UniProtKB/TrEMBL annotation:
It comes from Hymenobacter coccineus. Residues 1-20 form the signal peptide. Residues 141-501 form the Amidase domain. The lineage of its organism: Bacteria, Pseudomonadati, Bacteroidota, Cytophagia, Cytophagales. Pfam families: Amidase (PF01425). This is Amidase. GO terms for molecular function: glutaminyl-tRNA synthase (glutamine-hydrolyzing) activity. Keywords: Signal. It comes from the Bacteria.
Amino acid sequence: MLKKLLPALLLGAAGFGAGALVARPTAAEPVTVPLLRAAQELLGLHFTDAQLDSAKGAIGRNRGSYDELRKIALPNTVAPALVFDPVPLRLRLAAPAGKLGPDRMAPVGKVKLPANRDDLAFYTVRQLGELLRTKQISSVELTEFFLARLRKYSPQLLCVVTLTEELAMQQARAADAEIKAGRYRGPLHGVPFGVKDLFSTKTYKTTWGSVPYKDQLLDEDAAVVTRLRDAGAVLVAKFTLGALAMGDVWFGGRTRSPWDLKQGSSGSSAGSASAVGAGLVPFALGTETLGSIVSPSTACGTTGLRPTFGQVSRAGAMALSWSMDKVGPLTRSAEDCALVFRAIQGEDPRDVATLLRPRAAADFRCAFDTDVKKLRVGYLKADFEGEYSSKGTDQATLDALRKLGVELVPLDLHGLPAGELTFLLSAEGAAAFDDLTRSGRDALMVNQGKNAWPTTFRAARFVPAVEYIQAQRARRVLIEEVDKRLLGLDAYVGPSFNSPSLVITNLTGHPAVVVPNGMRPNGLPATITFTGQLYGEAKLLALAKAYQDATDFDEKHPPLFQ
């Protein structure tokens, strides 16, 4: 019976459009007990025929409501009325945070313009900012330098969707004029950068990396684009992302790692990581929902910050999962992450998640004079003891931290509900791209595999609303349990992938910074991940910077692009 009824069941629940393989049933087709019996088998329910007969009238009325709902225009920019709150009860009840003083930065030292201008490719944001501040180079010169590298190397890496050359030169000239007049905006003033092409920009396409949207023009600048413009930074490019923020395959091909052109850059912040790793820009913006900063940073050898959920506005950014999407920088160092994060973080009424910060959370300030010996740092002991490809480099990192005087406290994150909650992402993604699925335009996407978005979005149409809400309730349990286990810690360190931490903290909203710590057997960089308390980016970045100051892995660059 199930085999006979399953096609009708699938179509009734999913409502596929003309692009589906079979026709969609009309709204007038009756809801019957046999149809519901098959449906409940799929969902693991066990109602009697009499119970199903009693419910079929309400179910039919609900289906009519679905048809009416689908007539309402709901573009990707419309967020749900419900907003994910990552804050545990302990922080909600805590006393208000005291006011912080100014940023506490380490001395930049004397920065000189290199004799070989090509060396500028791998200068840090702070070094380039100092060259601009001291007028040793102009923003126009620096912008032309990086535009030239982008034009030269992007065909090899397939990391650029659009060069924003005209805008970049306008912004560079404006930066030079302001700096010359003594109106210096800070360390990003005049520094070129790029953004993942899911951030909207006026006059330039915002393609989301996918064929159905490759000609899309959105008449607004994303919040982070505006904030970086206000900081004086110069937008030079929009970088590739795996289609609709999955992987490294987009409508123009596969973005590659600068360390090995035969290997992909991973994703979904594919182009941002590839370009920064190859020295085509000093920094770029990416997003993470479930690994999209950590994974490409590993493949490309960049330092990436995934901030606390709600710390950075997503207004003007493509939505994939409203309760999991986070915006962060990919750079050469933890110090650079702090500089960029400082510019883009903060409240924005257009993204309600940014308004949920508890009174116990202080505004972010760079705190690089933090004595890391006084930090209480956990480490995922059981995960480091397992066998995995980067175990040797990770053990060396633990040794380096101990040499810095950091006391490492064993921490265990196993046994928590996490992996079984990841269908939340698929369900929200299916809602965000409901029209794409029902119109059949998902057939235009390059990747059509069993694990690709078209299939995932279709499958997600069968996630029951009750189970979605139950999963969010279980997520609240997860938030409180993680908060208990991290109590008394300032941060913890764990393998980037050989651990449940990546999934757990993307669900709970904790910040993390991923940093290079060696090379893997496959020839790509290895990384390790530092994770902080909610809204604890200051201590987190101070710890990561201390590690990078004691090692040189962040100063190694791919030979093909030096």
